[in-house]
Amino acid sequence: MTQEWDAGRLDSDLEGVGFDTLAVRAGQHRSPEGEHGEALFLTSSYVFRTAADAAARFAGEVPGNVYSRYTNPTVRAFEERMAALEGAEQAVATATGMSAILAIVMSLCSAGDHVLVSRSVFGSTISLFEKYLKRFGVQVDYVALSELDGWATACRPNTRLFFVESPSNPLAELVDIAALAEVAHAQGALLVVDNCFCTPALQQPLKLGADIVMHSATKFIDGQGRAMGGVVAGKAELMKEVVGFLRTAGPTLSPFNAWLFLKGLETLRVRMQAHCASAQRLAEWLERQPGIERVHYAGLPSHPQHALALRQQSGFGAVVSFEVSGGRDAAWRFIDATRVVSITTNLGDTKTTIAHPATTSHGRLSPAERAAAGIGDNLIRLAVGLEDVVDLQADLARGLAAL
């Protein structure tokens, strides 16, 4: 017969502990089995003690699980751990990073509301706003990420949200988050920051003044290219609206993926430190090579926002983008000549990936939209993994030889 776990020791005492301890232990609630690792609850629904118990839980009058579309113990553990790492009151998990953006806008905006989006965002983010959200009456304009005056000028009386990636995908552009938060709040708008490239290990936008932070957990949160998911975090008042949308529409995270993300978070900081170290070394090396016209990496003194990156981030991230001489044909030759790195559009993996943004991640954009986002035909994005950096450098040298 199973011995019940002492209810007084269900959770570790985490008050005042550091980031790495939170990454390993936050959000864990041991079941009566007393497991040491996080439990995986693969169930679609839950059994109630009585009909009255079921009614009270559905009404929100008493705590407890109702249905796994919107409450699951494993997913909740992931949400609590992400909230702890980002310094948020509450986090809400979603099925993908894109569904996290959808949940934010659908829960916090109405037809007629105005949203300002930085031009240098992921191609699918632009497609979501342009092809779908505009159809339902959400007004959208795009602003150069780092130009604070442009954000203030573009505001309207009905501006509800500012949405930015900082650093951006794939050019590693930055915005002064604290300063942009002041602009947004003066307008009465909310600032949403996609923190996917940095993760809370390198940057915590909420502490800089942002209202909401979001991630594609598919990337560095998982860290091994295994599962898809997203997360939104911020004040509980705002997250209540996001929960309401997920409960109704259903783009929720699967328990199994939440369990994988929990394990990924346990090594988040050490992985990000290793990613950053290798990316810095490769960026410096690429910048010296003939055939490379420009390297985009905030860790380089040549990056126009290097000083800002030093101030608001504790590391420069894993993504290095660079432009080669010779246009698209040269970029494709470079990519095809590599033998170690993976030709794929995912990033945040232990395995280094390489991609041609103009024909993949940003391929659905018009030439004008790509130009506005700074995505040229000669641009290559490298997401540096955890292989031996000497081997990665040798592989990139194969690409250079093909130019």
Overview of this protein structure:
About 45% of the residues are buried. It is globular, with a radius of gyration of 22 Å. Helix content is about 40%, strand content about 15%. The chain contains 15 helices and twelve strands. The chain is α/β, with parallel strands linked by helices and about 400 residues long. A seven-stranded mixed sheet has the order 1-7-6-5-4-2-3, with helices on both faces. The chain has a five-stranded mixed sheet with strand order 8-9-12-11-10. It has two domains: about 15-265, Type I PLP-dependent aspartate aminotransferase-like (Major domain) (Aspartate Aminotransferase, domain 2); about 270-400, Aspartate Aminotransferase, domain 1.
- How large, in whole angstroms, is the Cα Rg? 22 Å
How far is the N terminus from the C terminus?
68 Å
Overall body shape: globular
Mean pLDDT over all positions: 94
What percentage of the residues does DSSP assign to strands (E)? 5-15%
Helix content: 25-40%
Helix tally equals 15
- Give helix and strand order, one letter per element, not per position: HHHEHEHEHEHEHEEHHHEHEHEEHEH
Total tally of structural domains: 2
Structural class: alpha/beta
Return the CATH class of the largest domain.
Alpha Beta
β-strand number: 12
CATH architecture of the largest domain: 3-Layer(aba) Sandwich
Low-confidence stretches: 1-5
CATH superfamily of the largest domain: Type I PLP-dependent aspartate aminotransferase-like (Major domain)
How would you characterize the largest beta sheet? Answer: 7 strands, mixed
Strand neighbour order, sheet with most strands? 1-7-6-5-4-2-3
* CATH fold assignment of the largest domain: Aspartate Aminotransferase, domain 2
